[in-house]
Amino acid sequence: xxxxxxxxxxxxxxxxxxxxxxxxxxxxxxxxxxxxxxxxxxxxxxxxxxxxxxxxxxxxxxxxxxxxxxxxxxxxxxxxxxxxxxxxxxxxxxxxxxxxxxxxxxxxxxxxxxxxxxxxxxxxxxxxxxxxxxxxxxxxxxxxxxxxxxxxxxxxxxxxxxxxxxxxxxxxxxxxxxxxxxxxxxxxxxxxxxxxxxxxxxxxxx
Length: 206
Hints:
Layout: E1 4-9, E2 12-17, H1 30-43, E3 49-54, H2 65-69, H3 86-100, H4 102-105, E4 110-113, H5 118-126, H6 131-164, H7 167-179, H8 181-189, E5 193-194, E6 199-200
């Protein structure tokens, strides 16, 4: 079953994240399928605007952390065996980022439908605008962000890899694999676990 659905509805390309069972969380396949759908819509002269939505009750829950932290993915690359190769990690995460950025780089406007009806009215209005006008407006808006967004993404990608492969990050992953994601997250968020010592915090320190 495709994890991203594509439908052409008149001048509107409807792109739908299709993992409703996990609130459309991101796994290894979704970024590639999303980029392919955006590229298809951007290349179609009959498409004026894209509407990105999520199937089911959520738009997108972010990365599928149970898939990665519990290592439910058979061959996921998010956390390597030590010693880790930072460039291998960077290539994987940066590659995903660039696939998401196809939404930013494409010449046609993209509306994210976070389960709202107002998007449909706006999409219908934009579908009546010539594609050259839409492209020029999108490029003007994008250039205001391009001066900082690339360097911010690079720093965030490096920091993400360092964090996951720190002693604390490895301890968190090991606990998620042992106890399950639903136990590891409260341990983290409620401040009951010392991730450096990898043991429960004494109650006076909580």
